[in-house]
Amino acid sequence: MLVVRGRLAMADTARLCEELTVQITTRGAADGTGAIGEAICDVGGLVRPDLVAVNTLARLHLTARRHGLRLRLRGADRELHLLLGLVGLSVLAEEARP
Predict the structure, then answer these.
(1) In the 8-state DSSP scheme, what is residue 85?
(2) CA-CA distance, 63 to 56, in Å (whole number)?
(3) Which end of the chain is more exposed for a tag (fewer CB within 10 A), N or C?
(4) Could you please report the per-residue DSSP string of 4-64?
(5) Strand partners, 38
């Protein structure tokens, strides 16, 4: 699980995508069966989500998809759900199962 906290800056995007890639490849999340698994991103610690956070989450989503996984968010607040819906990324707003 990738944990995202605080207020994100554009410089955080590449680092978080790299962290997600490392987590996926080291745990062998893509099992080769063709089934789409899940990568969980805990966003409960985000402070005042904005378009930088949305951009970062969109890039994390693309990173997960490149590895055959679906990115699921955990702990997204109402504000983040609204932002994701506003920019057409409501698919990211689906909550991960606990």
Answers:
(1) H
(2) 10
(3) C
(4) EEE---HHHHHHHHHHHHHHHHHHT---SSS--EEEEEEEEEESS--HHHHHHHHHHHHHH
(5) 70
Residue 27 C-beta-side C-alpha neighbours within 13 Å: 14
- DSSP for residue 96: P
Cβ atoms of 49 and 80 within 8 Å: the answer is yes
Distance CA 94, CA 6 (A): 21
Taking the CA of residue 80 as centre, how many other CA atoms within 13 Å lie in the half-sphere pointing to its CB?
A: 28
Q: What is the pLDDT of residues 51-72, one digit of tens each?
A: 999 999 999 999 999 999 999 9
73 three-class SS: strand
DSSP reduced 3-state for 86: helix
What φ, ψ does residue 57 adopt, rounded to 5°? -65, -35
